[in-house]
Design a protein that fits this description.
By secondary structure, the chain is α+β, with helices and mostly antiparallel strands. It has helices at about 25-30, 115-125, 145-150, 155-165, 165-175, and strands at about 10, 15-25, 40-50, 55-70, 75-90, 100-105, 110-115. Bound molecules: zinc ion.
Length: about 180
């Protein structure tokens, strides 16, 4: 069972230089989040911390699968995700609000929890449009019964056309 404590980095104990952390995320990771958008997944997270004086550069590398619902036929499928995200932590005398990429901590801070960051990175790795075409392994197609149902109600199929991300159209052309 996963716990938030596993994601606490006691950075005061780290020497200057590079440090590596590996997290093997499974369903219990997502169970820690209230109202998580994701319930099932297997994701490997590698965190590289480059510690300098009053500054730490964090590089998160994420790769795995999460279970999600197809935007077209609503079937659940395994969506492959991967991405890299950088965050800097600065130790300052008067900490101010984070501006997204830089987090400010006061001089007495001794640890930092990366759980929420990993969760958010996984969410942002998911494409805007998620369809069975993106699944892995590549053996799933949209649920034919649902497609039939959708094509019988013209209104909803038109809505789906409009909502399609134009970037996927480009990918479609490459595949076809
Ligand atoms: Zn589908």
């Amino acid at each position: 069972m996963d716990s938030l404590r596993n994601y606490e980095i006691d950075f005061v104990k780290l020497k200057l230089g590079q440090h590596h952390f590996d997290y093997k995320i499974d369903d219990s990771f997502f169970g820690l989040k209230e109202n998580s958008l994701i319930e099932h997944g297997k994701v490997n997270v590698h965190l590289l911390i480059d510690k300098k004086d009053r500054l730490m550069n964090l590089t998160f590398t994420i790769e795995g699968i999460v279970m999600t619902d197809c935007d077209i036929c609503l079937d659940a499928f395994n969506l492959p995700i991967n991405g890299i995200e950088l965050i800097a932590i600065k130790i300052v005398d008067e900490p101010k609000e984070s501006d997204g990429e830089i987090i400010y901590l006061g001089p007495n801070a001794i640890s930092f929890n990366v759980y929420d960051h990993i969760y958010e990175i996984i969410c942002t790795c998911m494409p805007m449009t998620k369809t069975c075409k993106n699944n892995t392994p590549k053996n799933k197609l949209c649920n034919p019964q649902m497609l039939k149902f959708l094509s019988e109600s013209n209104d909803s199929s038109q809505n789906i056309e409009k909502n399609t991300d134009p970037r996927w159209d480009k990918l479609k052309n490459i595949k076809d």
